[in-house]
């Protein structure tokens, strides 16, 4: 990677109201950029959160998560041919 | 470090549009599912919703849900929804697909539901090659009811009904449903997947999409078995349960494609549609001339009709047919009717009886406990029901002599040797029709035309129509003569 500015290729958002704190996303995430928070949400669950950087946008956390809308995965719009998410098994 | 403000993000994966935006469950829980943290059902629900979205079939998908932890499919999926009785989802899905061939019909079932109580339904749906897609959630237990053994419970696995663990003797072996169905010729696609790690998850997503795609292409029966964690009943955390799928469950239930005939299979033709309504009388052998003609026989409004009849006799005496004739005539006259047969397993020589109600008001219950008219074809039947006849009612009894100890002063009796009378008319088997004629005369509520219309609709052979008509008329005159005597 030779770009001068190095962007993450993705990011995730976790809805703290929907997350049940099962930890499957943390287990699934290849670059390990999801962690479990300490405080409890309205329903009494600890919830996962995104560490803030390093997401590749691979979306495997989304597939592993049992909740319909707990995780949203974003990818940067492709602006140069360089950008390509690595596969989840990385 | 990323610099968000400078970047343009698009959603790569988010909540599927095939899910309702909110779930109409309990007040506070409208955006969460009812599944436990880490439940495999939740994961498969998402895969299914994603496949429906990707194939753009949301507006023609009909999902048949199970009994078990997956029971609330209708709360979550914004598609056509049907709840089936425990184990029957694939049978219901078969019927739905046959009547709506353009729909994408899914049957979603657990392993208690599909492999235990619904074992017959899945076997025959697969064997018929119904063009449906079945999603089979194998979590090796009955979860919703608290963790009893399922047919899929592993050897050695403990459950509430098997606290020592499952033993091949006497509990049998874990049932391999996918392998079993793969012995059948008809299924087009059968695959077992798991939710045990990232690789398995991606294969599962692909398989579920494949199962739907096969149906979109018009191919036949597709079956996707998913080894799915149930952390709660397994008493593990979500990650341990996921690993248990991969490290333990998969050893008993190997993953893989067990059947793939999708390449060589031609799209199935849609089933022949059901015959048009106006062809049905022809198929049933009812002549055009004998069909009811509009409202020709409908009785005048405002007349109170409330006839409650019990008809009893031996099997073979025409008890049920007598009741059917009465009800059919009532229908022809535009009245509300019910006919409730009650008989044993014997085709002949048992006893049988039926309840008939004819009314101009909606009938609340088809059960007749205190008949206004009892038709008793023999003495045992008389003795069974005579006390129940309501005061002012009638007993029509097949016998010359009415038993003395059955006499009541608050009812009317017409006792005649109807079998003998019918025999003299041409056939002893017409005794029921002579008694029907008497009943019609006594009750006086049904028009003659309706009775003959009913007769011609129910009786095929002209010889019998003629004889029965004679018998009914004769029974009517016998009853009329008796009324004059009274
Ligand atoms: C006719 C009938 N029998 C029994 C039950 C009780 N019952 C409810 S759920 C269930 C078992 C469900 O197990 P499974 O299909 O494995 O689903 P899971 O809960 O594991 O997802 C049973 C026996 C019922 N509801 N209806
Ligand atoms: S997988 Fe979903 S529910 Fe589980 S911790 Fe992650 S975001 Fe929360
Ligand atoms: S009991 Fe098991 S199958 Fe049922 S919702 Fe909980 S984790 Fe899922």
SSE layout:
The complex is a heterodimer of chains A (90) and B (486).
Chain A lengths: L9 E5 L9 H5 L5 E7 L5 E5 L9 H5 L6 E6 L14
Antiparallel strand pairs in A: 1-4, 2-3
Chain B lengths: L8 E5 L26 H15 L6 E5 L7 H4 L3 E4 L5 H11 L4 E7 H7 L1 H9 L5 E6 L2 E2 L5 E2 L18 H4 L5 H5 L7 E6 L3 H19 L5 E6 L3 H4 L3 H15 L3 E5 L19 H4 L22 E9 L4 H14 L3 E8 L7 E9 L13 E4 L2 H7 L8 E5 L13 E5 L1 H8 L5 H13 L4 H11 L3 H24 L1
Parallel strand pairs in B: 2-3, 2-4, 4-5, 5-9, 8-9, 11-14, 14-15, 15-16
Antiparallel strand pairs in B: 6-7, 8-10, 11-13, 12-13
The structure holds thiamine diphosphate (TPP) and iron/sulfur cluster (SF4) (2 copies).
One iron/sulfur cluster binds next to helix 1 and strand 3 of chain A.
The gist of it:
The complex is a heterodimer of chains A (about 90) and B (about 475). With about 90 residues, chain A is α+β, with helices and mostly antiparallel strands.
Task: Provide a descriptive summary of the structure in words.
The complex is a heterodimer of chains A (90) and B (486). With 90 residues, chain A is α+β, with helices and mostly antiparallel strands. Chain A has one domain (4-79): Alpha-Beta Plaits. Helix content of chain A is 11%, strand content 26%. Chain A is built from two helices and four strands, in the order E-H-E-E-H-E. Chain A has helices at 24-28, 60-64, and strands at 10-14, 34-40, 46-50, 71-76. In chain A, a hairpin with a 5-residue loop joins strand 2 and strand 3 (46-50). Chain B has two domains: 12-260, Rossmann fold (3-Layer(aba) Sandwich), CATH 3.40.50; 285-485, Pyruvate-ferredoxin oxidoreductase, PFOR, domain III (Pyruvate-ferredoxin Oxidoreductase, domain 3, 3-Layer(aba) Sandwich), CATH 3.40.920. In chain B, 36% of the residues lie in helices and 18% in strands. Chain B has 17 helices and 16 strands. In chain B, helix 1 packs across helix 8 and helix 3 runs parallel beside helix 5 (119-127). Chain B is elongated, with a radius of gyration of 32 Å. The termini of chain B are far apart. The chains are: A alpha+beta (90), B alpha/beta (486). Chains A and B meet through helix 1, helix 2 and strand 4 of A and strand 1, helix 1, helix 8 and helix 10 of B. One iron/sulfur cluster binds at residues 35-36, 39, 41, 69, 139, 143-144, 230-233 of chain B. Residues 14, 19-25, 47-48, 64-65, 67, 70-71 of chain A line the site of one iron/sulfur cluster (SF4).
């Amino acid at each position: 990677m030779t770009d001068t500015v190095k962007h993450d290729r993705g990011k995730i958002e976790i809805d703290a109201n929907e997350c049940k704190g099962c930890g499957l996303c943390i287990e699934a995430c290849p670059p390990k950029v999801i962690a479990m928070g300490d405080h409890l949400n309205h329903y009494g669950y600890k919830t996962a959160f995104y560490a803030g950087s390093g997401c590749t946008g691979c979306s495997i956390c989304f597939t592993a998560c049992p909740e319909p809308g707990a995780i949203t995965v974003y990818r940067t719009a492709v602006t140069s041919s360089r950008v390509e998410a690595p596969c989840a098994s990385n | 470090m990323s610099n968000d403000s400078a970047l343009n993000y698009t959603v790569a994966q988010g909540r599927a549009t095939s899910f309702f935006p909110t779930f109409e469950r309990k007040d506070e829980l409208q955006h969460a599912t009812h599944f436990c943290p880490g439940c495999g059902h939740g994961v498969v629900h998402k895969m299914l919703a994603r496949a429906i979205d990707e194939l753009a079939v949301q507006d023609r998908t009909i999902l048949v849900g199970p009994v078990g932890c997956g029971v609330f499919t209708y709360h979550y999926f914004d598609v056509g929804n049907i709840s089936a009785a425990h184990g029957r989802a694939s049978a219901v899905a078969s019927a739905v697909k046959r009547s709506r061939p353009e729909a994408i019909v899914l049957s979603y079932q657990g392993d208690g539901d599909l492999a235990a109580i619904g074992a017959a339904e899945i076997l025959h749906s697969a064997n018929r090659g119904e063009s449906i897609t079945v999603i089979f959630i194998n979590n090796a237990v009955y979860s919703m009811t608290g963790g009893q053994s399922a047919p899929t419970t592993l050897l050695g696995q403990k459950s509430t009904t098997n606290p020592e663990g499952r033993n091949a003797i006497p509990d049998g072996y874990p049932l391999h449903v996918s392998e079993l169905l793969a012995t059948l010729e008809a299924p087009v696609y059968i695959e077992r997947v798991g939710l045990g790690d990232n690789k398995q998850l991606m294969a599962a997503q692909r398989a579920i999409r494949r199962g739907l795609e096969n149906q979109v292409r018009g191919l036949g029966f597709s079956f996707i078995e998913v080894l799915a964690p149930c952390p709660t009943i397994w008493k593990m955390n979500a990650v341990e349960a996921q690993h248990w799928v991969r490290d333990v469950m998969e050893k008993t239930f190997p993953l893989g494609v067990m059947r793939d005939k999708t390449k060589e299979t031609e799209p199935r033709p849609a089933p022949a549609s059901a015959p048009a309504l106006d062809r049905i009388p022809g198929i049933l052998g009812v002549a055009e001339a004998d069909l009811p003609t509009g409202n020709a026989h409908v009785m005048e409004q405002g007349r109170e009709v409330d006839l409650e009849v019990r008809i009893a006799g031996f099997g073979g005496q025409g008890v049920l047919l007598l009741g059917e004739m009465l009800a059919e005539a009532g229908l022809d006259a535009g009245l509300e009717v019910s006919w409730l047969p009650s008989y044993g397993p014997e085709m002949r020589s048992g006893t049988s009886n039926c309840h008939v109600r004819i009314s101009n008001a909606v009938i609340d219950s088809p059960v007749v406990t205190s008949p206004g008219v009892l038709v008793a074809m023999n003495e045992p039947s008389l003795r069974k029901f005579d006390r129940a006849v309501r005061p002012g009612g009638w007993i029509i009894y097949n016998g010359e002599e009415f038993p003395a100890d059955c006499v009541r002063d608050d009812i009317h009796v017409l006792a005649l040797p109807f079998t003998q009378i019918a025999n003299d008319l041409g056939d002893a088997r017409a005794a029921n029709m002579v008694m029907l004629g008497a009943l019609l005369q006594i009750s006086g509520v049904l028009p003659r035309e309706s009775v003959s219309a009913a007769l011609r609709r129910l009786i095929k052979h002209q010889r019998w129509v003629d004889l029965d008509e004679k018998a009914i008329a004769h029974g009517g005159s016998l009853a009329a003569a008796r009324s004059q005597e009274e």
